[in-house]
Design brief:
Structural class: alpha+beta
Largest sheet: 9 strands, mixed
Oligomer: single chain
CATH superfamily of the largest domain: Endonuclease Chain A
Strand content: 15-25%
Radius of gyration: 23 Å
Distance between the termini: 48 Å
Mean pLDDT: 93
Number of strands: 21
Number of helices: 13
CATH architecture of the largest domain: 2-Layer Sandwich
CATH topology of the largest domain: Endonuclease, Chain A
Number of domains: 2
Helix content: 25-40%
CATH class of the largest domain: Alpha Beta
Low-confidence stretches: none
């Protein structure tokens, strides 16, 4: 009897410990400097960049890229400081890549360090690139050997994206560490074996999902915020980027300082500060840096401000956030012209996915009367994440960057960076983005950029329930 009572007490104490650990993990506050909304600055030298894959009328495949070329050009200009923060920076699953992006970035960073040995060169990245300590990537060793500071993001400082597992992980496994020897499980992203600890860590679904670059040339500061990963297997993806300079670039640097300090990189304390906001910004384009939850606040403010007869276009890799979906539907009901271009969530580096969450979110939009088209993908992904609003008064706004429109990306869980550009409808860059969207929507010149809603429509109520549960619980990879 005593043994039975002790066993029951032990089970209750363990269950209580797990529940408490889950709650603590879920309610962990964001570290200082994150979820930032910087001042709206005069936007200097703004340029929107596009990567796109498509098939022409004869069925021939085409790839047109701008983002990596501009990134490499910026790196070559760096003289004072170079900080790059990239989520996927590896050659995993890249045997059939269009372009060796990870090698190109590695060589550019090493060259910058060699040519300017007094210049700090810092790479901030996500521990997924080492499978959480289960691999020792050669290009990371080369960067370190060249004097590049490699900062592995301390994801344990973030709130839990998947609290049901992270609570258990905290109690059972988080203190075990990892190593590159003794792996016995198949590497999920390449050859060789990895440890069970890599898999257990992966299930936390935490990530530094940012994709940014900041450089000091010695005379000015320049920056780039993108949806592109320097990941070989992603080299055919459709992506977007915003390049800019001036005070906003230093604002971006402050948001990267927060991640570096959170991860224990104290030299970031010496990075230059951003200037005080101008109380009366000059006329013309203005730009604001948004990170983490501030991105959702910016998106909702933009969508909710749209009025009848105004144009709202969305193109995004993942759409699952209920507040965003409901805001789009409400805008449509107010008379806003809303169009959504979504990835069909079919292609994942040689594997075929089941379409969750986009096909279910698209069903909501379609039922509400919002036109939806699918990016026509042929093994790659439509990886852009941007929304453009054109107002009746001739003004326009664009939000673009790393953040998908999901709970994980927008609710202070992942690390994310996007920018908000306030401009005019006839601005050259806004016009270029509009023309790009129209080319996709209309399948210009007989090329295949997009497909009708019916091609991937999924009205399965079971999969819809699965999507809603995954979105709400965090038990998902989106």
């Amino acid at each position: 009897m005593l043994t039975s009572n002790l066993l029951r007490l032990g089970v209750l104490l363990l269950a209580a410990a797990i529940i408490i650990a889950c709650v603590i993990a879920a309610w962990r506050p964001m570290p200082s400097g994150l979820s930032a909304s910087t001042p709206l600055r005069q936007a200097d030298d703004v340029k929107l960049l596009f990567d796109q894959s498509w098939q022409d009328a004869q069925g021939n495949s085409h790839v047109q890229q701008q983002i990596m070329d501009h990134m490499l050009a910026l790196i070559s200009e760096a003289r004072e400081l170079l900080v790059v923060d990239m989520f996927l920076f590896n050659d995993f699953a890249g045997t059939d890549s269009y372009r060796p992006l990870s090698a190109e970035l590695t060589e550019a960073l090493i060259r910058a360090r060699q040519q300017h040995p007094q210049m700090p060169v810092i790479v901030i990245t996500d521990p997924f690139n080492t499978l959480y300590g289960g691999l020792a990537p050669e290009h990371f060793e080369r960067l370190r050997a060249a004097g590049v500071d490699l900062v592995m993001t301390d994801l344990s400082q973030l709130p839990a994206s998947n609290p049901l597992w992270t609570g258990i992980w905290t109690l059972c496994c988080s203190y075990l560490g990892n190593n590159t020897e003794g792996g016995w499980l198949p590497n999920p992203v390449g050859p060789g074996k990895v440890t069970l600890r890599s898999y257990l860590h992966l299930l936390n679904f935490r990530a530094n999902h940012r994709k940014t670059l900041v450089i000091g040339t010695g005379s000015e500061w320049k920056a780039l915020v993108t949806s592109m990963n320097p990941h070989d297997a992603s080299s055919r993806h459709d992506n977007s980027a915003v390049q800019f300079s001036g005070a906003a670039a230093l604002d971006l640097l402050q948001t990267e300082r927060a991640v570096a300090l959170m991860s224990g990189y104290l030299p970031a304390l010496k990075w230059p500060e951003a200037p005080a906001p101008d109380p009366a910004p000059a006329d013309g384009n203005q730009l604001q840096v948004l990170t983490e939850g501030a991105i959702e606040r910016g998106l909702l403010q933009l969508i909710n401000s749209a009025q009848s007869n105004e144009q709202l276009d969305v193109e995004v890799f993942y759409l699952s956030s209920r507040p965003i979906i409901e805001a789009l539907i409400a805008a449509h009901q107010r008379g806003v012209t809303v169009r959504a271009m979504l990835d069909p969530n079919r292609d994942a580096f040689g594997r075929e996915k089941n379409g969750i969450p986009n096909r279910q979110a698209a069903w909501d939009l379609h039922e509400a009367g919002i036109p939806v088209r699918w990016c026509a993908t042929f093994g790659e992904q439509c990886h852009r994440k941007w929304v453009r609003l054109e107002r009746a008064d001739g003004s326009a706004e664009l939000i673009a960057g790393s953040a998908n429109f999901t709970r994980r990306n927008l609710h202070d869980l992942n690390l994310e960076t996007s920018v908000r550009l306030v401009s005019r409808r006839d601005d050259e860059q806004i016009s270029a983005q509009r023309a790009d969207f129209e080319r996709e929507w209309q399948n210009a010149n007989g090329a295949i950029y997009s497909l009708p809603y019916a091609d991937f429509a999924d009205h399965s109520r079971w999969r819809y329930v699965v999507y809603r549960f995954m979105e709400a619980s965090g038990l998902s990879t989106f």
